[in-house]
Write a structure and sequence with these properties.
Layout (H helix, E strand, L loop, with lengths): L2 E4 L18 E9 L5 E3 L2 H5 L14 H11 L4 E7 H4 L3 H5 L2 H17 L4 E5 L16 H16 L4 E7 L19 E5 L14
Parallel strand pairs: 1-2, 2-4, 4-5, 5-6, 6-7
Antiparallel strand pairs: 2-3
Length: 205
């Protein structure tokens, strides 16, 4: 399967250069989560406007606005909204720990999928659990994440896909029973650069 990622500030955002007939799945990964559980575009200008790195596509400015145009034009393509990432996912822990904030996030995701006429969502939380880069994680992150996925799946129903990006190994000594929700996930994507890093005591190659 040929997967392509498109971000609001990515030089790969020249849509006219992408052979969409050869792409199976396209994820727009420019959306973060606020402390209240709402979605926010990380760079509104590049998402909704044009710049020296982004051109008009089918008369529509901004890579986020252009997603629905792309999706309509290519029947072979599945277009997803990427939520989280290194910067955009830093509030996941506190949001998913709250019943009310989880409900807000579920509602936000469904609303955005409808608004931009997308096929689903890719959840990208790369460092759940205590000991993450910002020290904001909790031992309950995994269970809260699973609960969120169940609630999101129920709200979206069978018409939308849910993908998940996750570490290829237990990060910072933390792991969680993600297998308990695997039946709700369409595709898993493993982030392999977490095998070694600055937390190692010696350099490894």
């Amino acid at each position: 399967m040929n997967v392509r990622y498109l971000s609001g500030d990515d030089s790969l955002s020249y849509l006219s250069d992408i052979p969409f007939e050869l792409v199976d799945e396209l994820t727009w990964s420019g959306v973060g989560v606020t402390p209240e559980g709402e979605l926010e575009v990380l760079d509104r200008y590049l998402a909704f406007s044009i710049s020296d790195r982004h051109e008009m596509f089918e008369g529509v400015p901004g890579t986020l606005n252009q997603l629905s145009v792309i999706n309509k034009k290519h029947d072979n393509l599945t277009v997803l909204l990427g939520v989280g990432g290194y910067l955009g996912g830093r509030n996941f822990s506190q949001v998913l720990a709250s019943n009310n904030k989880r409900a807000v996030l579920v509602s936000e995701i469904k609303s955005w999928l409808i608004r931009y006429q997308l096929d689903g969502v890719e959840l990208d939380w790369r460092d759940p659990g205590p000991g993450g880069p910002d020290g904001q994680g909790s031992p309950e992150d995994g269970l809260n994440y699973n609960q969120f996925v169940q609630e999101l799946s129920k709200a979206l129903g069978p018409d939308y896909l849910i993908n998940m990006t996750l570490p290829a190994k237990a990060v910072f000594g933390y792991d969680w029973p993600v297998a308990n929700v695997q039946h709700l996930i369409n595709h898993f994507y493993l982030v392999s650069w977490f095998f070694h890093g600055t937390w190692d005591k010696v350099t490894k190659h």
